[in-house]
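Chapter review. Work through the record for Acyl-CoA reductase before attempting the end-of-chapter questions.
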Amino acid sequence: MNLQQRIDAFVKLGDFLGQFSNEVIQKKDNIEHNDLFFDGFKHQLKLAKEHNGWFTQENMAYAIKSWHEALTEANLKKWLSAYQINELTPKTIAVIMAGNIPLVGFHDFLSVLISGHNVLVKQSSNDKQLLPYLSKYLEYINPNFKERIAFIEGEMKGFDAVIATGSNNTARYFEYYFKNKPAIIRNSRNSVAVLTGNESEEDLKKLSEDIFRYYGLGCRNVSKLFVPKHYNFDAFFKAIYHWHPIIEEAKYANNYDYNKAVYLMSEFDMLENGFLMIKEDSSYASPIATVFYEFYDTHFQLKEKLNNEKQQIQCIVAKGFTENEIPFGGSQKPQLWDYADGIDSIEFLLSIQ
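Structure tokens for Acyl-CoA reductase:
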């Protein structure tokens, strides 16, 4: 396969995914191999939902829509135009995936294959229904992928480099275990939002998407707010209220009740509105149904703090605060060229010879 053939295959995969990108699934006539794969993927979505209670139909549709919109020929070519991708001798790249949100490891899977390498995938037990099925679809689109894609359950063997994502503890294990291999090792990070008090109601409504999408389980979810001294949270609570049905989801409600009980018994000060608690805390990683906040004095001091602690931060959501900020409502809509932890995985993959 040359690069254009690989691009063509992923564009067709994007077209296939488009049928599942809304909560109401719609079969289309012009999708290759649809009679063979449509009903099967519908069933895989059902299995994924049954296996992982966080994978609601709405959240899976949101993730799939993101990939449907990303996998266009224009997007893929724009992404790859920054690199000199020559045909290389394929190496086997092991990809160890997280499972916190649906298809969270897809970007690594795509990056390995689009660069011309073979991929050896070790999935999280929380998210293992969707990607193998989509891989089979790719193999039907272009049979050359059959010898390029493998999934394993047990010990990983026979690979040349690794991209691994896990918790902070797991990442330390990865660093030791893969110390003799070229590697990208990712650990836990969280995202923050910087507020000034001048945000419009629409800004704060958009911010609620960054907080609540995927129940806050993603590294791009805002888990902490930085606010000026004496910030009034009334406008914030009013703007996010349209998310109140989230408390009807049993898993979310259980976490809300548990964390609220812990805070009350510990006599922690916190504000809450029946489905979200906010608590002043210097940590970045907040529990489910909770967002931490911290006061700041000046933008200069805050920028200095965030720069010093950038290893803990995935992205900064703000409006006119810093050069690389994400706009309100945009944290869960990364482009193909928005790399996790800011590490260019294509550049890494092209360096493996």
